[in-house]
C-alpha cells in the first residue's frame, strides 16, 4: 500500500510522456508484428528472432520507460541554468543552509535522477539496421526448417507523436523434404554399430528437411559410438551432404574411419584407480596407503578413509568392460551426490593394445563442520521471535560416505498466550534432532534386483524432540523417521517412510480456554442464557458434560451443536497422541535446473497410521481407545495430490498454476484426525486473502482461532512479471476451503462436505504482490482481498469486504509455490 502511494505521488509530479527522451527525427518503437503467409504470427518462438523489441510492458503499460522518464538526463545543465536565471534563490539557499549543504542538496537531487535513469528503461529508438538483422535472422530460421525459397521483408509505419511500428512479412513457399538416404561409413566397426541402431535415426524419408534433425542425428551417433566402446570418437567425424531439387533433398551420411590418422577402435578398460584424498597441492606426494578390491585400486596419500566396498556403490566404471560415456557421467553424478567430495574428476589414459586406464580423483570436503544461524520470526500467534540454531556435521562417519547431522535450536518468543504476557520475549522453545544419511538401502535383505544402485538409493534415520513453554498448550514432541528414497529417472523420485512416528504431549491443557477465548465466550453465552451460570476456564468441560445433554438438544439444537463442537475440539487439541505412520511419496518434476521457469510438477502421497501398532497394543483408556505408553494411538488414512505447472510467456513473464487436494479419514481407534496432521487453510503460501486457520470448515463462520478439517482443496493462478530490475510483481487468484467428512453428529452441516453442493463453499481471494529478488533470496509481500466469502448471506458473498481496510498482508521468503 505504501509503495503504491509513493508511486502515485511520484507519477503525479512527473511526466508520463513516453517520448520525453526521443530525439527529433527519431521514433519510439512501440510494436513488432510478424505475418507468416499473410497470417498474423502466434508462435512465440518466432518472436525470439526479433533483434529490436519495444520497451517492456507491465500489464500493457511501459512502466520501466515511465520510470526512466522521471529522471532528468540534463539535470546538471538545467541546474546551472537555474543558478544563472535565479542567482538570488541559490545564494539564499547557500546562506540559510551553508554552501556545503546547498551542494549536498544539489548532489542528492542529482543522485535521485540518476537512480531513476539507471533503474528504468531508456526508450527503444527505431533502428532500421536492426530490422535488417531481424530479416536475416528470420530467413536463416526458416532456411534451417527446410524453407529454402523463403522471402522476408519489413515495412516501417511512422505514427503520430514520434512513434513507429514495424511489420515483418514472411512468405515461406513449400518446404523441402528428405528423399532418400545413403551412408558412407568407411570403418567396418562403425558401420556394424550403425546398422544395429539405424531404426532410431532422426533422418527419415519423407520428413521435412530440418537442421535440428541433422544436429540430433549427429549427437545420437556420437553418443552411440562413445557408449559402444569407441573412446576416440567425436562428432567432427560425422558430416552430411545434400543434393536438392524439386523441393526434395537426397542425403549422404559420411562417417570417417579415423581421427588424426588413428583408426577408430572399440577400447576396453583395463584398470580403475581411485584416489580418495586428491588435491592439487599434494598430487606429487607419495602414496602411503592402497588396497586392491575387486580389481579396483584404491589409493591415498595419507590414510585410506573410505570402505572400498561401500564407495563402489557410486562407481559404475568397471574393469574389463568397454568404455562408455554414460558410466563416466553416472559415476561423476553419484559421487557428487554423496556430498562428501569438493570435486570429482575422471580421466582416461590410453595404454598399449588399445586398453584404457581410468583414474578417479576425489577431493574430500572437511570431515567436520559447524554452523550457526539466527533469525527473527513473526506470525499471528508469535508476535516476535528470536531463534538460533547450532548444527554439527560429520562426513563419512562409518567410512561409507554417510553423513551424521546433529542440531540444537532454541527460540525466545513474544507469545500472546503466555502467562506473563506483559514482558517481551515471554516464552521459549527448545529442540534438537539427529539424522544419519546413508547412501544405500540399509535392510536385512538385498535390494539390488529391485532398486539398482543406478537409482541412488538412500536411507535416512531421524530422531528429534522439542519442548515449548508458555506457547499454546506447551507441547512436547518426539519424532522418529526411517526413510528410504530413490530416483528412478531424472524426473521421477520416490520416498518410502517405513516409519514416521510422532509422540505429542500437552503440558499445559489447563490454559486451553485462556488461549481459545472465542470458544470460552460462546460457551459462556450459553451458560448465562440457559443456566444462569458463570464459567471459568477450569470448569467448561464439566459444565458441558453435566448440562448439554439430550434434553437440552431437543429444545436448543443449535446451541447443543456449538457446545458439543467446543468439547470435541478441546478433546482433539488437548489430546496426547501417538502417530505411528507409514507412507509412500511419488514426485515428478521435469524442471531442468533451478533457473527453469517452464516445467511441470506432480506429487502424490499416501499415508496410513496406526494399523500395526493397534494390532499389537492391548491396553485401553477410559474411552475404550487403544493406547501405547498410556497414549491414544491415531489411526487414519490420508492421501495428498499436488500439481503445479509453469509457463514461460515471455522474458521474465511467467504464468504459474498450483492445485492441491487432500483427504484424511479417521477410522478404527480414532474418531478424528490429530490436530497436528489435520488440514488448515490460509496464510502466505495458501489462500492469501485469509490469515492462517481463519477460514472454514465449509461455510461456517465461528470465529475460532484454529479451524481445521480433514478434506482440503486449494487452487491458485498467478501471473508473475518484472517491474524494474530486481523488483518483480504478481497478480493472483486463490480458491479453496477445508471441510469435515466424518459422520460426527455434533459437526455443523455447513462444515461438512456434501458432494457437488459443497463446491459453493469454495472461497476465492485475489490480489497482487511485490517481490524483491536478491539473487540468493527472494523477499515477498502479497496483498490478499476477499473476493468470494461463502459464509456470508446470499447476495452478499461477492466483493463485500473487497477493500483495503480488510486487506491481508502476507510477508514471505521465496515464491508461494
Automatic annotation (TrEMBL):
Pfam family, one: Omp85
GO (cellular component) term, any one: outer membrane
Primary location class: membrane
Keyword Chloroplast: no
Highest taxon listed in the record's lineage: Bacteria
Bacterial surface antigen (D15) domain sequence ranges: 634-815
Residue ranges of coiled coil: none
Subcellular localization(s) per the UniProt record: Membrane
Record bears the keyword Signal: yes
Keyword set, alphabetical order: Cell outer membrane, Membrane, Signal, Transmembrane
Name used for this protein in its record: Bacterial surface antigen (D15) domain-containing protein
Provenance organism: Lutibacter profundi
